[in-house]
Design goal:
The complex is a heterodimer. By secondary structure, chain A is an alpha+beta fold. Chain A has 6 domains: 68 residues, 2-Layer Sandwich (Phenylalanyl-tRNA Synthetase, Chain B, domain 1); 120 residues, Beta Barrel (OB fold (Dihydrolipoamide Acetyltransferase, E2P)), CATH 2.40.50; 192 residues, Phenylalanyl-trna Synthetase, Chain B, domain 3 (Phenylalanyl-tRNA Synthetase, Chain B, domain 3); 62 residues, Phenylalanyl-tRNA Synthetase, Chain B, domain 1 (2-Layer Sandwich); 193 residues, BirA Bifunctional Protein, domain 2 (2-Layer Sandwich), CATH 3.30.930.10; 92 residues, 2-Layer Sandwich (Alpha-Beta Plaits). In chain A, strand 36 and strand 37 form a beta hairpin. Chain B has 2 domains: 89 residues; 237 residues, Bira Bifunctional Protein, Domain 2 (BirA Bifunctional Protein, domain 2, 2-Layer Sandwich). Chain B has 12 helices and 10 strands. In chain B, strands 1, 4, 5, 6, 7, 8, 9 and 10 form an 8-stranded mixed sheet that branches. In chain B, a hairpin with a 2-residue loop joins strand 6 and strand 7. The chains are: A alpha+beta, B alpha+beta. At the A-B interface, helix 8, helix 11, helix 13, helix 14 and strand 30 of A face helix 5, strand 1, strand 2, helix 7 and strand 4 of B. Chain B: Belongs to the class-II aminoacyl-tRNA synthetase family. Phe-tRNA synthetase alpha subunit type 1 subfamily. Chain B: GO terms for molecular function: ligase activity. Chain B: It is an enzyme of class 6 (ligase).
Chain lengths: 803, 358
């Protein structure tokens, strides 16, 4: 919302400095976004007198001028056609910033002649678009005096500060300058001026009548209008043009400008029909759907069923409350004008405006809520201005429907400000603030004014009082302690788990990424997503169209970007939500890591090697351990289709509860994501490991044995598809009491193994640890256990002890 | 006795001159071995008179000890020399880099969330979570933003696809973490103190906006909680978070549908030479929105507005990270440039806590 200081002063009697007004506006919730104050931008320009001017020795169009200024005589080169002896001019000396050129003047040499400043045109000072020559000042102003002082005296409009404020959706009244003035008056920065007009007397009955269909009364409770005959349209008076231009509106013609003026002046959108272009009377009705209309913005619009139209006998001529039609709009030739002031339901306007994608000042105002009681008064303000400036004769007022009654009241509890806000404001002041804002106070009831649809309860009264009193005065008061003791823990086990997983991965050398939750459909499809259920209906770009089904898509894109920057070795991770469907419950918290390239940069120690599946598995197990997942997990396969079918697996707790998938990602997926692979990684389902049941911090007692443990090694020849875990489990099962550990320490496979052991064979070497319990074992006891191990492994895997 | 002196001189000189362990051993055998010269002399003690023995005995023993000591000292010296020689040969170039270790990092957003949690935990705030896909009701209606209200349009909402035939309003990507307030109130009621950090979404992308960013919501409900408590809480937070006891906040009236009264909150700062300094100067920079929870919002959460009141606020996490750590560009947060992650990231072990300072 834009306005100028002098426009404000149409409604507010005030001597307050601009700075105070700006501070108050922001402080009261009408946040100042921009101020254009020529007094600031033009402060350094001074008045000079051209004593002498002659042609530049080396340029026909330039003149070398001797100019009297506050700093004595300056030589200034000027190219303006009117630069000549004997005129008063505006001088920008070296160091002065020229807003219209966006440069700071320096001392320069133009074709070999020095120039100590410039003489400015109106455009260069952003006073107007005039740029045919430099400004010539009349009335022999004092040389060296400030140009802004001259402007203040001769052209006060030119130094009228323009103020733009942000309007929160609850303050439609501040979409009119009068509403802004009212807030400032309540704050004590001036006194509201009355806004009375000489009453309009209708001398005839309007030829144009208005009917509202029965099913449209809710959308248009009241419609008022007057026919004004015999007007003379044309350009608006200068003051009106200046004000409209100052807030960025283009003056069109007086009749149109009047409607724009009242939209901004008192938040009262109006429409003017050229009465001679209307056929018959006006009917306010809901569209059947399909009605076509060219609006004032030259756009062609087709109305949906239910949208409110204003039609004459020919058809739709205006989109109610949003934009009038081009055919029946006013032009310079308009002689008879029908002025409309109606009240439209804000939801009807909001829906129609959104569907038609029309952003007009009228829609903006109606959907926020205008003052219903001002509907007929606003009409007469406009008609009065038309009669005064364009002549003509007004009809009696056409009134269809009734002004909706918005009278309501809320209890004004003056203690509530103290209890809710924590500020002491006397009851008298509270009543005064509210009264100044237009509230009527009757006993303990406060009646909001008709222009404040946002006030809907007692809490709003507190807000109004606090706002006018200024929250800047609010002093903090300590929050009461919940208990006198040490604060109790506040994180849930899952929250701790998420944090632990994150820090565990960083500790393992992974760099945490935060990638977007939405990705393109092709990437989503690679990871089992991309369905309509997770599609965003209004994505910001096709790269961000679907909620991610996996963290890998975002991480791989990140990897590709880093590879493009020349970083080939990396460990990335993310902890975040993935989306298996479009319902709120369909999110799942994952922690995923990726390893690409080598374990490290090239080094002199020979430590560098390519990362592989077992790096990913080890890291996954480390994270699972850190978050307290059970130690003994099943390794199952296959993993999902985006993994390498031979080099991936899952760590599970039982057949259904997958805690983690790990391995190498499918080469096709990597290629599709534009990453140079191979890529290994893991994804941990953070919600799947059971939460610890024990409430006690006590650990089970540590059992150690004084008896020496015995290690025994075995090598088995097995079929090459036998998995190590099967073999280990069999070995461990040989004596569950005494065998406490079993692990693989070598696998011998490939061509050499085949040569030694035959086609389809490999050798797995395992070591077991036998821990005696109550007595030292004799050789024959150990041999017996070893025999059982061989026996069990043979049964489980078909393997034989390697000779 | 002269012969003893000669013997001493002979062997001590020889020991000094010995070059290796073999020579030393030969000397030991020759002097104090079973048939060594000193040993032979000692055998002669038996033939002496008691008077002679009184002087010769100690003298011989002293000679033997002296020779043994000299042998031991020389042996140690030779061993030292040999070790030194070996160590000299074992010189390596220690200017070479150490064996490489991968170094990971925590993203600034995670770090700042942990900082925020640590600070509010000390005031008794627990952490609540919402969902990122949210129903129209929780994201808007329950927060007093009715359908077709202009406040909705200001949210630049992302809507989820809706299957034909499914007449429910489309779900949205939550535009604020405030939706979590309602879920929490429904489940736990009042009194309560929670914060809710997380991702939020707005359809906006330019220099200073990304379609996804992070926010945390604060909610404190009880009997008699006022806006003055809100101001204190926010000021305490900022002083702790920015580690600056001089931080001042200023409240300005504003409007949010879910609070009444509402205030935007500015922090005192200066922009000297384009360098932002918080906690001093005459400028004010907006950092968050807040207010007293609207009675309709309390009612939507099943809390009796006549019994309980309290405050709520929402603050940008990415923005806090930028302000605190001097990170210039929001968009870089989500780009995962490893150079950026390493530069602005945090060590895994640097878990924020109040005893060490956040």
């Amino acid at each position: 919302m834009k306005f100028t200081l002098s426009w404000l002063k149409r409604h507010l009697e005030t001597d307050a400095p601009l700075e105070d007004i700006l501070y108050a506006l922001t402080d009261m919730g009408l946040e100042v976004e921009e101020v254009v104050n020529p007094l600031d931008t033009l402060a350094a320009f001074t008045i000079g007198y051209v004593k002498h001017a002659e042609k530049h020795p080396d340029a026909d169009k330039l003149r070398v001028c001797k100019v009297d200024t506050d700093e004595g005589e300056l030589q200034i080169i000027c190219g303006a056609p009117n630069a000549r002896e004997g005129i008063h001019v505006v001088v920008a000396k070296p160091g002065v910033y020229v807003p219209g050129l966006d440069i700071t003047i320096g001392v320069g040499k133009i074709r070999g002649v020095e120039s100590y400043g410039m003489m400015a045109s109106e455009k260069e000072m952003e006073l107007s678009d005039e740029h045919d020559g430099i400004i010539e000042l009349s009335g022999a102003p004092k040389v060296g005096s400030k140009f802004v002082d001259y402007l203040a005296e001769h052209r006060p409009d030119a130094i009228d500060p323009m103020i733009e404020i942000a309007i929160t959706p609850n303050r439609p009244d501040a979409l009119g300058v009068r509403g802004i003035a009212r807030d400032l008056a309540a704050r004590g920065l001036g006194v509201m001026k009355p806004c009375e007009i000489e009453p309009v007397t209708g001398t005839f009955k309007s030829d144009i009548d208005v009917v509202i269909d029965a099913d449209t009364r809710d959308g248009c409770p009241v419609f008022t209008g007057r026919l004004v005959k015999g007007v003379k349209n044309g350009p608006s008076p200068a003051w009106l043009q200046t004000w409209l231009k100052a807030i960025g509106l283009r003056p069109i013609s007086f009749l149109v400008d009047v409607t724009n003026f009242f939209a901004y002046d008192q938040n009262r959108p109006l429409h003017v029909f050229d009465a001679d272009k209307l056929v018959g009377s006006l009917r306010v009705h809901r569209a059947k759907g399909g009605e076509k209309l060219t609006a004032l913005d030259d756009g062609e619009y087709t109305l949906d069923a239910g949208m409110i139209a204003i039609s004459d006998d020919r058809g739709a001529q205006s989109i109610a409350g949003i934009m009038g039609g081009l055919d029946t709009g006013c032009s310079d030739e308009t002689v008879n004008v029908f002025v409309e002031s109606a009240f439209w339901d804000r939801i009807d306007i909001a829906i129609a405006g959104r569907k038609l994608k029309i952003n007009s000042d009228a829609r903006y105002r109606f959907e926020r809520g205008i003052d219903p009681e001002f509907t007929p008064k606003g009409l007469d303000h406009a008609v009065r201005m038309i009669l005064d400036h364009a002549g003509g004769e007004a009809s009696e007022m056409v009134v269809t429907g009734n002004v909706p009654n918005t009278t309501r009241s809320y209890k004004l509890d003056t203690d509530r400000v103290k209890s809710l806000v924590g500020m002491e404001i006397s009851a008298e002041n509270q009543v005064k603030y509210l009264t100044d804002l237009g509230f009527k106070i009757d006993g303990d009831q406060a009646f909001p004014p008709s222009w404040r649809p946002d006030v809907q309860g007692s809490a709003d009264l507190v807000e109004e009082v606090a706002r006018i009193a200024s929250l800047a005065n609010l002093q903090g008061v300590p929050l009461p302690k919940l208990s006198d003791g040490i604060p109790t823990p506040i994180l849930s086990p899952m929250q701790k788990r998420e944090s632990t997983a994150r820090r565990a991965m960083a500790a393992l050398g992974y760099n945490e990424c935060v990638t977007y939750s939405f990705i393109d459909s092709a990437s989503a499809e690679l990871f089992g997503g991309g369905s309509d259920a997770v599609r965003i209906s209004n994505p910001i770009s096709s790269d961000m169209s679907h909620m991610r089904p996996s963290l890998f898509a975002g991480l791989l894109k990140a990897a590709a970007r880093n590879q493009a920057r020349g970083i080939m070795d990396m460990a990335l991770f993310e902890v975040g939500t993935v989306f298996h469907g479009g319902e709120p419950k369909d999110g799942e918290l994952l922690a995923a890591g990726l390893l690409i390239g080598h374990t490290n940069a090239r080094d002199p120690h020979g430590a560098r090697r390519m990362v592989d599946t077992f790096d990913a598995k080890a890291d996954a197990e480390a994270v699972l351990s850190a978050i307290g997942a059970p130690e003994k997990l099943m390794v199952t396969r296959p993993a999902k289709e985006w993994w390498h079918p031979g080099r991936s697996g899952k760590l599970c707790l039982g057949p259904k509860n997958v805690l983690c998938a790990f391995g190498e990602l499918h080469p096709k997926v990597i290629e599709a994501m534009g990453v140079k692979g191979p890529v290994v990684g893991f994804a941990i389902h953070l919600e799947n490991p059971p939460l610890p049941r024990a409430k006690s911090a006590t650990r089970p007692a540590l059992k150690t044995s004084d008896l020496q443990a015995v290690d025994r090694d075995f090598a088995f020849v097995v079929d090459s598809d036998v998995e190590a875990l099967t073999l280990l489990n069999a070995a461990k099962g040989a004596d569950k009491g005494l065998i406490v550990e079993a692990s693989v320490f070598d696998v011998f496979e490939g061509a050499k193994a085949v040569a030694q052991m035959g086609e389809g064979k490999k050798s797995i070497a395992v070591t077991i640890k036998i821990q005696p319990k109550d007595k030292t074992l004799k050789d024959k006891d150990i041999e017996a256990i070893a025999d059982k191990v061989v026996d069990k492994v043979t049964k489980a895997t078909g393997g034989v002890l390697r000779g | 006795m002269d012969s003893l002196d000669a013997l001493k001189s002979k062997y001590l000189t020889a020991v000094i001159g010995a070059n290796d362990e073999t020579a030393l051993e030969e000397l030991r055998v020759a002097a104090v071995g079973k048939k060594g010269e000193v040993s032979l002399k000692m055998r002669e003690l038996g033939k002496m008179t008691p008077e002679e023995r009184k002087t010769a005995g100690p003298a011989l023993n002293a000679l033997k000890d002296e020779i043994n000591s000299a042998l031991a000292a020389k042996k140690a010296a030779l061993a030292d020399a040999a070790l030194n020689e070996r160590l000299q040969s074992e010189w390596i170039d220690v200017s070479l880099a150490g064996r490489p270790k991968r170094v990971g990092s925590i993203h600034p957003i995670s770090q700042v969330i942990d900082e925020i949690v640590a600070i509010y935990a000390s005031l008794g705030f627990s952490v609540a979570e919402g969902t990122q896909i949210e129903t129209d009701y929780y994201n808007f209606d329950a927060l007093n933003i009715p359908a077709e209200h202009p406040a909705r349009q200001e949210h630049d909402t992302f809507y989820m696809h809706r299957e034909e035939g499914d007449e429910r309003a489309p779900h949205v990507l939550r535009t604020q973490t405030s939706a979590a307030q309602i879920h929490y109130m429904e489940k736990h009621g009042a009194p309560c103190r929670i914060i809710c950090p997380g991702r939020v979404y707005r359809a906006d992308y330019d220099q200073t906006h990304t379609p996804m960013f992070h926010q945390y919501e604060g909610l404190c409900l009880d009997k008699g909680i006022s806006m003055a408590n809100l101001k204190w809480t926010l000021e305490e937070f900022c002083r702790s978070f920015f580690n600056n006891p001089n931080i001042e906040l200023r409240f300005r009236a504003s409007h949010f549908p879910f609070t009444e009264p509402s205030a935007e909150v500015d922090i005192r700062c200066t922009w000297d030479n384009g360098q932002l300094k918080i906690g001093e100067g005459d400028d004010w920079m907006e950092i968050l929105g807040s207010g007293m929870v609207h009675p309709k919002v309390l009612a939507a959460g099943g809390v009796d507005p006549d019994e309980y009141q309290g405050f709520a606020f929402g603050m940008g996490i990415d923005r806090l990270a930028m302000l605190k750590y001097g990170i210039p560009d929001l968009r870089a947060f989500f780009d995962s440039d490893l150079r950026w992650l390493r530069h602005y990231g945090f060590s895994a072990l640097n878990m924020p806590n109040l005893q060490g300072g956040v």
